Amino acid sequence: MPILDFKTSTTFDLFPSKLFSMYLHDDVADFFGTLVEDIDFRTVGENPHWVSRFNLLDDYPEMKKVFTDLVFHTLENIEGVKKIKITTSWFTATEPNTMPTMHRHQNSWYSGVYYFQDSYSGIEFKNPIERDIDTKNSQTTSNWRLTPEKNQLIIFPSYLHHKIEKNISDTVRHSLAFNTMPDGLTGAVDSEFEY
Q1: Edge-to-edge order in the sheet of strand 173-182
Q2: CA 39 to CA 36: how far, in whole Å?
Q3: What is the pTM of this model?
């Protein structure tokens, strides 16, 4: 499977941020589709959805490298990093008629979600800058919504609050989520730091 061979790639100028979207090949979805049935899920806090353990991709180093490389090649020209690492990764499971709460991923740089099943409810992002503007576009709107499709990978800044919309299907909705951080030496002069 060619690591960087994906069907299409799109960048959305979202709020004062960028959200990246690309579609991976069916073999990636098939791989995760076969795994999900054997995964143990649990709830965390009061968020009404289920998660696996938070280092899932550590058991699948080839797939972890695929996602690391995809995120790195997406961000290297925009963020100027030389190396990144996936710090946490997990499956989510949203039962029918449930809707997880608005949240963000702390202690992370960019986050990603990969959708490997056929139908999904939307994901909603909240603008981190409160604005009262008559003209609405993707940068000034209060909330922005995306309806994911099978094989779609989205990458977004971890500081963006987001939530999964209500699962109105009669099946459990699964996805793969992960967080990243820069790895090694980054920045220059007074902003140089080694992660």
Answers
A1: 9-14, 17-23, 152-157, 110-114, 173-182, 84-94, 47-51, 42-44
A2: 5
A3: 0.84
